[in-house]
């Protein structure tokens, strides 16, 4: 009824649709085989009320956990509990306008589980870190550190001297085996080069 028609205004289109709708509702739908008005009424009864809170639009991204139990997203870093993750583990970030929720997402972990929730960072390069998440990270107490070179020992001096002797002997042996090292080389005093360059003249006796 409406196909191929041209309408001069929106009001004219509305009037045509209102006149066409009752005709369409009395027809049998070719997909489900029921009268459209009857099926519409049954569908309306089955509709549930809208939820109290609006539907949250969420972005989902996969990331890897770093060795410092931090996850990078959009130039920001977000922490996860060190004792619940391992370096390189795959996690899923569920991003809303206000929050970043991080879930474990690994076949070995079974279903996705919530690891951490942070406010979404706004300033570039922000670190959204929960200090409690660092529990379990190495703190350096198990390793000794020094700020100066250790004092040399007699054994170290002897070893270094032995290495120098070996290097000298190895170089001599290498030169002895090289054919170029056995080519005779002429030797002349440096004054001969000055004479050739005109910097010195032969004395006349």
UniProtKB/TrEMBL annotation:
Bias type Basic and acidic residues, positions: 130-142, 152-166
Region of interest: Disordered: 126-167
InterPro entries cross-referenced by the UniProt entry: IstA-like_C (IPR054353)
Superkingdom, taxonomy of origin: Bacteria
Pfam family, one: Mu-transpos_C_2
Transposase for insertion sequence element IS21-like C-terminal domain sequence ranges: 50-130
PANTHER family: TRANSPOSASE, TRANSPOSASE RV3428C-RELATED
The name this protein goes by in its record: Integrase catalytic region
Organism whose genome encodes this protein: Carbonactinospora thermoautotrophica
């Amino acid at each position: 009824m409406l196909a191929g028609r041209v309408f001069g205004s929106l009001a004219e289109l509305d009037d045509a649709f209102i006149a066409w709708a009752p005709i369409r509702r009395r027809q049998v739908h070719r997909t489900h085989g029921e009268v459209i008005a009857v099926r519409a009424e049954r569908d309306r009864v089955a509709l549930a009320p809208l939820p109290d809170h609006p539907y949250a639009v969420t972005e989902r991204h996969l990331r890897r956990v770093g060795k410092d139990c931090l996850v990078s997203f959009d130039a920001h870093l977000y922490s996860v509990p060190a004792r619940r993750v391992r370096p390189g583990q795959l996690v899923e970030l569920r991003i809303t306008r206000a929050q970043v929720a991080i879930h474990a997402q690994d076949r070995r972990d079974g279903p996705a589980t919530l690891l951490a929730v942070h406010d979404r960072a706004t300033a570039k390069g922000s670190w959204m870190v929960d200090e409690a998440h660092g529990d379990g990270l190495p703190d350096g107490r198990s390793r000794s550190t020094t700020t100066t070179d250790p004092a040399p020992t007699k054994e170290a001096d002897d070893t270094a001297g032995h290495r120098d002797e070996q290097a000298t002997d190895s170089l001599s042996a290498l030169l002895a085996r090289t054919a170029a090292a056995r080519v005779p080389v002429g030797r002349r005093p440096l004054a001969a080069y000055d004479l050739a360059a005109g910097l010195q003249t032969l004395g006349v006796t």
